[in-house]
Amino acid sequence: MYQAPKLSAANPTEFYAELAQQLEGLLFGERNWLANSANFAALLWDQMPDLNWAGFYLVEPATGDLVVGPFQGKPACARIAPGRGVCGTALSENRAQLVPDVHAFPGHIACDAASRSELVIPLMRDGTVIGVLDLDSPLPSRFTPEDQAGLERLLDMLLSSSDF
């Protein structure tokens, strides 16, 4: 059974280093992408303060749409078209979206009306976006460039440890 103490987010460098150690333990000996991404979402949900959604949308090869994957939080939109909302924009532009105020983002999809800020980071495999990590918060400006950089490093760990 996984048990770890709550981490302090006061120092982002230390927080993401400790989170990486916890993720390494969760990933050890397991290559299944579904198990690993589900545990990744649960770890973020458990350890990151002020989230109201943490999880993945994965590209459906037949349509190019993002389809909801493992997550923690309220029920979510099942399918997002490329270019639609923050997640679809991250997919179509192939770059992270750090949104301090989702109400100011054109075309924002409000799966949870309580969401105020969002961070979406593409998952890359062999130069192709295979999905996105999506984090929502009820606080405006919750996410920082330090969060983005720390999460990108954690996603690299996930991708190198999983058979997507």
**Widest sheet, order of strands:** 3-2-1-6-5-4
Proportion of residues in β-strands: 15-25%
SSE pattern: HHEEEHEEEH
Evaluate the radius of gyration.
Answer: 15 Å
Which oligomerization state do the chains in this entry correspond to? Answer: single chain
Q: In total, how many beta strands?
A: 6
Residue share in helices? Answer: 25-40%
Shape: globular
Can you summarize the main beta sheet?
A: 6 strands, antiparallel
Low-confidence stretches: none
- Structure classification: alpha+beta
Number of helices: 4
For the termini, the CA-CA separation is: 25 Å
Mean pLDDT: 94
Protein model, in words:
By secondary structure, the protein is of the alpha+beta class. It has four helices and six strands. The protein has a six-stranded antiparallel β-sheet, sandwiched between helices. It is globular and about 40 Å long. The two termini are 25 Å apart.
Keyphrases for this structure?
164 residues; alpha+beta; 6-stranded antiparallel sheet
Short description:
The chain has helices spanning 12-27, 33-47, 85-93, 145-160, and strands at residues 53-59, 66-73, 79-80, 97-99, 117-125, 128-137. It is α+β, with helices and mostly antiparallel strands and 164 residues long.
Note the topology.
Elements lengths: L11 H16 L5 H15 L5 E7 L6 E8 L5 E2 L4 H9 L3 E3 L17 E9 L2 E10 L7 H16 L4
Antiparallel strand pairs: 1-2, 1-6, 2-3, 4-5, 5-6
